[in-house]
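Quick start: read one record
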Amino acid sequence: MTTTPLFEFMKARIAEDEANHYPYHSGDFGVFPDQPHGCVECGLGIGQPEERCRVQRECAAKLSIVQYAEALWFEEGRDADTAARYASTLWAVRRLASVYSDHPDYGGISA
C-alpha cells in the first residue's frame, strides 16, 4: 500500500519535532548545556520517561490524527459516511501541515 505525500510529510515533520525535543528528556542537551534540570519546554527532569511534556503530547496528538486519516484513506469500499469522515480529517491534516509551510518539502504536497 502506498500512502500519500501529505501523510508522509506530516509523519516526517512530527518525527523531526520529537527528535529535536528528545535531548531535553535524555540529558543530551547539546547546545543548551546550561539547562541541567530538565526540559526547557516543560521543566520535566531527566529520567522521567513516564511523564510526557506538551511537545510530546502534541506530537502524539498530531500523529494520531494523521494515522486516522491514513487508515480512512486505505479503507476499501468507502461508503458516504467514511468519505465524509475522510474529508473532514483530511482538512484537519492539511491545517496541521500548514504550520510547516516554511519547510522545503512543503511545496506541492497533496493528499
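The first helix runs from residue 5 to 21.
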